[in-house]
Specification:
The protein is mainly alpha-helical. It has 11 helices and 6 strands. The protein has 2 domains: about 1-95, 3-Layer(aba) Sandwich (Rossmann fold); about 140-235.
Length: about 240
């Protein structure tokens, strides 16, 4: 932080106070004696933000400021950015609408590399926020109980073939029971799809819990069935 304060042109007599101010602003005061390389991923992001903020630059560009940071720390970072924005022009890119709403005076939304809208949050919501938001609570335990006779004998595995076998058994079970089917589990897993996280872990040699994986298969299928049902009953609507 002293190094970046010097690079930012902070006078020598103010370097310590400037560094401490920014460290406290982003919530790193507990790690003041920790080497940067030994910080956690979230705290490294805080440190990157602190290095950018020091010296109070007039223009600041920030990319995905709080990605991968826990909710409490995220709020601290947002407050630091908002405070800096009182005297600086800040451009921040983010995939999180919550982050954009919390920080920004103006929001621009891009789709496929094209700027689709620009304005205040209220202006964008007024012009583009028509429609309904549906919140669904799905009881995964009830979903599990619907397949009580099907339980993998070996719950922990890193064998991709074994996972595919489990998915085939689920698919066969659905076919016998005429169970509503919105996804093809084997196809989704084979191409990555909604289970790409599991494929990545298996490819790294990590073990996964087949019972937890099975629950996620059932959950995603249930969500797909609900969306299909809504789409049929409101065919003129777009999602």
């Amino acid at each position: 932080m002293k190094l970046y304060a010097t690079l930012a042109g902070v006078p020598d007599e103010h370097i310590i106070s400037a560094a401490m101010t920014v460290i406290c602003k982003v919530g790193l005061q507990m790690f003041i004696e920790t080497q940067a390389g030994n910080l956690s991923g979230g705290n490294k992001r805080k440190l990157c933000l602190a290095m950018a903020l020091i010296g109070r630059p007039k223009i600041l560009f920030i990319d995905e400021a709080s990605a991968g940071v826990d909710p409490g720390s995220r709020r601290v970072m947002w407050n630091a950015i908002k405070d800096e924005g009182q005297e600086s022009a800040i451009v921040i890119t983010t995939h999180a609408m919550e982050e954009a709403e919390a920080i920004s005076d103006k929001i621009a939304i891009m789709v496929g590399g094209q700027l689709k809208c620009f304005g205040s949050l209220k202006e964008i919501q007024t012009e583009h926020g028509m429609g309904y938001e549906i919140e669904l609570n799905i009881d995964t335990e009830s979903l599990n109980e619907s397949m009580t006779e099907f339980r993998p004998e070996e719950a922990i595995t890193s064998d991709k073939t074994r996972v595919l076998q489990v998915l085939e058994e689920i698919t066969d079970f659905w076919a016998q029971d005429e169970y509503p089917k919105a996804i093809d589990p084997v196809e989704e897993f084979s191409r990555g799809g909604i289970f790409s996280n599991y494929i990545s872990r298996i490819n790294k040699g990590e073990q996964i819990d087949l019972n937890i994986f099975r629950r996620e298969v059932l959950f995603n299928n249930a969500v797909g069935c609900i969306i299909n049902e809504l789409s049929m009953k409101a065919s003129e609507a777009t999602v």
